[in-house]
Amino acid sequence: MPWTVTRQIQWPDGTPMVEISDGDLDYTNPDALGAQYPGEFQTYDDPEEAVEAALQILDYWQGAGQTDAQLGIGATGGMTMPFEPISPEQAREWAAKRREGLPKCDRCGEILGKERYSHPEIPDQVFCREYCAESAYEDQELQELKFSSVCDSCRNVAYDNGISGVAHQAEAMAMLGADLEDHLCDAREAPGLNINCECACNPVKKIRR
Q1: Range 103-146 has CATH code 1.10.3860
Q2: Of the N and C termini of the chain, which has fewer Cβ atoms inside 10 Å?
Q3: Is 10 helix (H, G, I), strand (E, B) or coil?
């Protein structure tokens, strides 16, 4: 749910108010004043950012002489709807509660906006940007590589055969490694190094502990 910040002279009582409205610009009250301060008419995915922007605008407005201006949070539902004034403390408490329940990026923890990203190798996770999706996949690859049961040379054979992902490569070589083309295996080439490789090409597979 995005939130939009505007300055309003509320109908029908004429109260000057900095409003934080649920939704985009189409869901603000219709008689917003022209933008004069930074943050007006902006839409925020993070309610805490919306509140801090609104409080800054309120401070500017009051400092410019509109000393009776107040802060309000509400939802118009696409109609005209006066908001009840609230204190900065109440606004920050509201924002913290709303933020806690919002969906967040599975890598960086930032709030998810309208644009969301995924990675085909980790379809159960959702990210705020492409960078986070790629980085999460790289993190998973490194973690899987750390515990991989197949040596690098054998995994490279799987990669050359179009198999991506460390776990998928290891599984494929453990099942089919003996049936693929003759290839190097670190465990067979350097038995003295005690390298563990459970590829099917290796007749003596070590039991991992």
Answers
A1: no
A2: C
A3: coil
